[in-house]
Amino acid sequence: MSKIEAAYDPKGYEEEIWELWKKNKIFDSKPSADKEPYTILMPPPNVTSKLHMGHGLGYSIQDLLIRWKRMLGFNTCWLPGTDHAGIATQMMVEKSLEEKGSSRAQLGRESFLKACKEWKDENGSLILEQFKKMGFSCDWDKTAYTMDPALSAAVRHVFVDLFNQGLIYRGERLVNWDPELQTAISDDELENKEIQGKLWFFRYSIIGTEEQIPIATTRPETMLGDTAVAVNPEDERFKHLIGKEVILPFSKRKIPIIEDSYVKGEFGTGAVKITPAHDPNDFQIGKRHNLAFINIFDEQAKCNKNTPANFQGLDRFEARKRVIKELKALELFDEEKNYKHSVPHSERSKAIIEPRLSKQWYVNMKAMAAEAAECARSGEISFYPKAWKKTYLYWLDNIQDWCISRQLWWGHRIPIWYCNSCNKAFTGIEDPEKCDTCDSSRLVQDKDVLDTWFSSWLWPLSPFGWPQTQENLNYYYPTNALITGAEIIFLWVARMVMVGKKYLGQVPFKDIYF
To answer: What are the phi and psi torsion angles at 97 (to 5°)?
Structure first.
């Protein structure tokens, strides 16, 4: 501006300064043998995001560190980018289609993915443009996106490598099922909310006797999938019933009364209905006692063909009402009591989660987790505040295998193909034209996509060209500091440490500030 105006107009000055910075490329960074690098990875915001106070705080701290190190003469690289946000993006597009009277099913997969890409192209750069308006001094020419071709190639490389090592496998497990989004989600994507619910009391009749065993539950609809009743072996009230069978109302199935020390005599009636396909604790009891696993709900949490005919098609909460009504008609219902308890909800859709038996793809995490834990114990990585080290270690020391499949369409499609001739499942860096065992071309690709975090855990590697090129990676890796929110310490931070150690033998960053 040629002169100082009487009234200060920040917009004019800021745009002029920004254009000056951009024209002179003062934020750009290139590998240099003469300068020491200082690198920060921007935690990639979702393409669905708009700037909020959390972004403003976290990224301002990153900008402060980068500008400080730049003034000290370091070759600074603050790498920006966005995440494709599988669930969030699909939700936004499906909502848009619904408003137009259409749906994902009506469009079909190919047209739906096209709609997602169009939505991303139109809206996905909004938050990065907002960052530029704030003057963040990122190396904007290095902006990356988790579904860029090079980053997608890294995803395929890691999947194939882990699969070939036997660390990726398919298994039938109990998952957190979101009936609104109709996909599995991880424990870390849940919100446990305390609600005012009910505890319902009723009885099962014991075969060959006049006795009945009392039951209490917060989810009476799941009785349609019961395969046992469990009591504590030390509970004198029920010892004489262990080994007997009860008749399950409505279905007339016979199920055993078993003993298991998990059951606590002080809860409810002291006798617990066991539904292994719809409760995490019951799942473990079912495995210990070799019980049947009966899945009674479809993807929308409606009663399926494994339930009696008059329940089929009912939503789970409608089924609950009918179960109670019919128990009363059979004179097996006793009472209901108010009962406050914690219920998991989906962080995205806000729906109540339904534990559900499902075939999914998993990563065996034990070895990688042990190495990532040792990085914290040895001081190879440091946490600020230090208290987060305990949280990090607790999760890694008690880690479960990672469910990486999602029943979505938007994202990196799982690179597994099934041969309809020999039934083999296999993978590959390139899409196959025929089965590598029987040469059949009757191949079908897995319908699911990978958990969004499967591409995000490669963020220290893939934006620098790994595994195709190494020049930038050799210079900028490991990065220096990670500034992020503590809520993704498991979803993202720990997994980046794992993948960095596994593929490069070094942690991706030294200092982690929450």
So the answer is: -65, -40
